[in-house]
Write a structure and sequence with these properties.
The structure is a homodimer. In chain A, 46% of the residues lie in helices and 17% in strands. Chain A is elongated, with a radius of gyration of 26 Å. Chain A starts with 7 loop residues before the first helix and ends in a 6-residue tail after the last strand. Chain A is α/β, with parallel strands linked by helices. In chain A, α1 (8-15) packs across α3. Chain A has three domains: 2-51, 434 Repressor (Amino-terminal Domain) (Orthogonal Bundle), CATH 1.10.260; 65-156 and 297-331, Rossmann fold (3-Layer(aba) Sandwich), CATH 3.40.50.2300; 159-295, Rossmann fold (3-Layer(aba) Sandwich). Chains A and B meet through α4, α5, β2, α7 and α12 of A and α4, α5, β2, α7 and α12 of B.
Chain lengths: 341, 341
């Protein structure tokens, strides 16, 4: 296309500088005076010059690309996380090559090979497919978010602290029995902290409690059926008791609220509910749902910042090897709405 | 990093082929016998060779990059559209460089310059900021989705047909008066078809109707207040009448449903509601909401397919100039749930 035909030669002729000077402008602009930088910048506009960043990448190895693998964008949590990661372009200038995981290890290895072939400088991994041990071997700066992270750097919500906040709020809401409903999360996953935090606080303050850990389905309809069963079980087991329900996320909290609301035409005082995430559904529910809000903007920013730090280290002549892995934790924020007191 | 040090020389030595043969393997593999291709492929694995696609791009101009500018990922519609676009990697092999719009024209022009500097082969634009006339001048294949598209190719939902489906369903649901509540969408925007379709069907079948077009707020809280006002207005103006409400999207339909449900403890037969989009909120509402489902997967696929067609044309020695612009329309699907009969 026409625009790309402007060469260093053309710019040199137009400005009366040498080609070496033009080249220095692109590769080390501060070696020129501010005035000469301005003359060349103006010439680029006059000549309608289009930079070829790829050529520059090959010359200096700095692609300014970060690769992302995200599990899906159906869950608002991931969509908003990607949104906030992409927005860090304004701060750090890195561009993002994005892949959506298909939960298939082989496919994901192929994505990583593709990303490496494009000379990305670092990766942010949110998908759960490939073990962190294998990720660490890819020999490139990596930060993971909310997944198993034993061998790689990560930024996660402080899930344990979030569970402590949620459980304490329910305990203060005049409940006789506290229940945490979750899938049977593995201990190496950050969100296991929600289970541990609930259990520890209940034990510490001798609160009657039950952990209901089971497969809650893989589609919305399955999940509705699973939570309907849990609701039936709770109703039968704890009649007349004030029940505090700590749901593992806002989608599940909303399903439980709808089941109760449709049965009673309201949320009876006998049921208190709190979710996790602060997804839009918590606010948009028939009654706004109390929740533990993840600071998605902050998590995204910290993840990119941590990655940039490592990528900058890699650009040094003798990069320092990292001393152990870094796991940053971001404190969540308790949001009190109408389903707790 | 160590892995990149393997050169064509190393591969040639390892396989006993000439460097020219190795080069042909990368640039025109079909010029080698299948057996020789396999020998080289195995050597690449043995030597842990990492392809440098950037070098290849500079040589042949095919970056396999598509640039995307998307307005936000807060709305599920955009998140799911991006999801489905990214998934076309499995079919077409194109990689995606993604920017989130900040609704700022200057910023968005900068994104486009960045994308062009990375030799993207085409763009998919969902943000509304830059007029299609200016986009068309960027001299690169472009497809837009659900935005003003006079001068560029586009793939959109058939919004008019969707409105016809929604209005017809309400008309059959025993309603005395039909109302369409929307913001005052400009006629050049594809979603204006929702207003036109509603109005035309009501006129054609002489159904009593009213268009309520007004600013419905820029945040969830503002929107709740605006729709609360609309609810008050309707209640007062049409007492005792069976009211069919066609809301401009599912988020608005859910807000209206919640307002009515909280007032009556149920959805009285006097109110029928239908939304648009088939977002998760339509299914997750206190009563599952009828809606006009956009075929997001199909729209995304058709958009990328149309772009690939143009990009392939650009790779020919003498690309044919396109004869006028193409506007593809994808028929939406009526989804009947519990808020209509």
């Amino acid at each position: 296309m026409g625009k790309n035909k402007v060469t260093f030669d053309d710019i040199a002729k137009y400005t009366n500088f040498s080609k070496t000077t033009i080249s220095r402008y692109f590769n080390n602009p501060d070696s020129l005076t501010v005035k000469n930088q301005e003359i060349i910048a103006q010439a680029l506009i006059d000549l309608d010059y289009q930079e070829n960043k790829l050529a520059k990448v090959l010359a200096n190895g700095k692609s300014e690309f970060i690769g992302i693998i995200i599990p899906n964008l159906f869950l608002h949590y991931y969509a908003e996380m990607l949104n906030q990661i992409l927005k860090t372009y304004e701060t750090f200038g890195y561009k993002f090559l994005v892949f959506v995981s298909t939960d298939n290890e082989e496919a994901e290895r192929k994505y990583i090979q593709e990303l490496l072939a494009y000379k990305i400088e670092g990766m942010i991994i949110l998908s759960h497919t490939i073990p962190s041990k294998e990720l660490a071997e890819s020999n490139i700066p990596i930060v993971t978010i909310e997944r198993e992270d034993k061998y790689v750097n990560s930024v996660n919500t402080d899930n344990y602290m979030g569970a402590v906040q949620a459980t304490s709020l329910l305990a203060k809401s005049n409940c006789d029995i506290l229940l945490h409903i979750n899938s049977d999360v593995h201990e190496t996953t950050p969100s296991y902290g929600r289970i541990a935090g609930f259990r520890d606080i209940c034990r510490e303050y001798s609160i009657e409690h039950e952990l209901i850990l089971r497969n809650l389905g893989n589609s919305y309809h399955e999940t509705v059926n699973c939570i309907q069963e849990v609701f039936g079980y709770i109703k039968k087991k704890y009649p007349g008791k004030n029940k505090g329900l700590f749901m593992s996320n806002d989608t599940h909290a909303n399903i439980m609220l709808n089941l109760i609301f449709r049965e009673y035409g309201m949320l009876p005082g006998e049921y208190r509910i709190i979710g996790f995430d602060d997804s839009p559904i918590a606010e948009e529910a028939i009654i706004p749902i109390s929740t533990v809000g993840q600071q998605i903007e902050k998590i995204a920013y910290e993840a990119v910042a941590l990655l940039v730090e490592q990528m900058n280290e890699q650009k040094k002549r003798r990069p320092k090897p990292q001393n152990g892995v870094i796991h940053k934790k971001i404190t969540p924020i308790l949001i009190r709405r109408e389903t707790t007191e």
